[in-house]
Amino acid sequence: MIPFSILDLAPVTEGSDASRSFRNSLDLARLGERLGYRRYWLAEHHNMPGIASAATAVLIGHIAGGTSTIRVGAGGIMLPNHSPLQVAEQFGTLASLYPGRVDLGLGRAPGTDQATARALRRYFEGADTFPDDVVELLGYFEPAAPGQPVRAVPGAGLEVPVWLLGSSLFGARLAAQLGLPYAFASHFAPDAMDQALAIYRRDFRPSARLAAPHAILAANVVVADTDAQARRLFTTQQQAFVNLRRGRPGLIPPPVDDIEAFWTPSEKLGVEHALACAVVGDPATAEAGLRAFIERHRPDELMITANIFDHAARLRSFELAAAVRDAMANASPAVG
């Protein structure tokens, strides 16, 4: 059975705040560690009231410091917002504090709106140079050469796994060219998923960092005791997507009993398309959905996310998803 991992956006729910969000994230990471999830990744977003993971490297340190074995990392750092040297120093620091447990995923989107991207200062100058920035960043993790004028301290000579993230063919091609592991954002942008995977695997060039292609696919997975309960929990994510597309991002809303009364027919079509990689239901429904997704797309790893309003229900969803994973492994070891 392929490994399962967790993607967390550090959601801030209505009636809560960032402090509570960070406590909940650590709580979930500790549960994920106990349940055998491989990684716990946090994503960089800015100027979004419902997502508290803007200072991603700081939050990774908080999670890594409160756990002991699970890998913790960025899914991802939006590199155009930062200088490669700063990122190398930050993740060199994290890797020095938590050896063998830190992942660095890199994306080329700003993770925000254009006005905020300008406020972050680097995006409009740096997005087009993303491939060069990635190569520069990788260089900072190499052992420092004698007389090297700029080095990452800490960072030089450390083994920090670097992943490329993407929702288009660009990242797949670059990851293949550089011989890096690749994670596709199928949880919100599934259109190019199959083509990107095919290109990545076909064109992959082995490197000192990775001998064979390794691809993660992401999916929304919401599991509850009944299908009806799971579908209701999922309305939180559906509402959040509609609010974002209406230009009104806000705190994460509670679930609703009738999602049809919330959105227009066109909004429904758009959200269902964006969230097509979703498995929502009771354990039996989740097992059927996950098995079909894995057998069809053959990822090397599955990263699941669940934007659930109630923290206890969110923990329960990941607990049930892990049980489904274990049941699939026991029933059909060849899956994946």
Question: Would you mind describing this structure in some detail?
Answer:
It is a single chain. This protein has helices at residues 18-35, 56-65, 84-97, 114-120, 123-126, 130-140, 169-178, 193-203, 227-245, 265-274, 283-297, 311-331, and strands spanning 4-8, 39-42, 71-78, 102-107, 162-166, 182-184, 215-223, 278-281, 301-305. It is globular. It is α/β, with parallel strands linked by helices. 45% of the residues lie in helices and 15% in strands. The protein has an eight-stranded parallel beta barrel, surrounded by eight helices. The protein has twelve helices and nine strands. Helix 1 (18-35) runs parallel beside helix 12, helix 3 (84-97) runs parallel beside helix 6 (130-140) and helix 11 (283-297) crosses helix 12. Strand 5 (162-166), helix 7 (169-178) and strand 6 form a beta-alpha-beta unit.
Identify low-pLDDT runs: none
Estimate the strand proportion. 5-15%
Order of SSEs: EHEHEHEHHHEHEHEHHEHEH
Distance between the termini: 6 Å
Helix content: 40-55%
Largest sheet: 8 strands, parallel, barrel
- Structural class comes to alpha/beta
Strand order of the largest sheet: 1-2-3-4-5-6-7-9
- Rounded mean pLDDT is 94
> How many strands appear in the DSSP assignment?
9
Overall form: globular
Number of discrete helical segments: 12
What is the CA-atom radius of gyration, in angstroms? Answer: 19 Å
